[in-house]
Amino acid sequence: MAALKLLLDDAFDFDFSLIAIHCSLEDYRLAFMANKYAGLRLKSSKDVDFYIKKLKYSFASFKYDDQKNYQTFTLIANKYKLKQAQRLVTSDLFADSESEHYKTVNLIPEVKNADYLLKIESDNGKSPRLKLLAHLNQIPQIITAYEVEVSALKSKQNLIFE
Fold first, then answer.
1. Residue 62's closest CA among 74, 70, 52?
2. How far is it, in rounded angstroms, from Cα 136 to Cα 129?
3. What residues contact 22, with CB distance under 8 A and at least 6 apart?
4. pLDDT (tens place) for every residue of the chain, 162 residues total
5. Contact 76, 53 (CB under 8 A)
6. Where are the domains of the chain?
7. Helix (H, G, I), strand (E, B) or coil at 3
8. CATH class as words, domain 14-82+98-157
């Protein structure tokens, strides 16, 4: 009897656009400003959780499903600051002092300077990214917003969270 061999093709099609946003606004303020300037209707959604080496990293996210145009917009934080307590033992006056250090973890390390990412999924083949980029760059608090080439990212699987 002939052996049956199944091949698993690990090449996954990432059919979305990605915009990196550099700004110092809080996540809810950025969502509000994007709604105001770009005409989106982003609403708070469930945080995206990642577990790496028994540590939980939560990235805030906001989502808008445009059912009329078959598009989904997801604004997600790219940075998470993890507080680490460190106990220092020395033989001086201030012995046994504790200090806190923060470790920054990025959702997409290739664009580690970006504070937020806007993921655009479109089922109709049209992506409003150029128009959206123009609107986002008009927001005074945004330093810059630009499109990221998804196929060049090594950690693009982190953007599949549904």
1. 74
2. 10
3. 113, 114, 115, 142, 143, 144, 145
4. 677 776 655 555 568 899 999 999 999 999 999 999 999 999 999 988 888 787 788 899 999 999 998 899 999 999 988 777 666 555 555 555 566 777 888 999 999 999 999 999 988 777 788 899 999 999 999 999 999 999 889 988 888 876
5. no
6. 14-82+98-157
7. coil
8. alpha beta
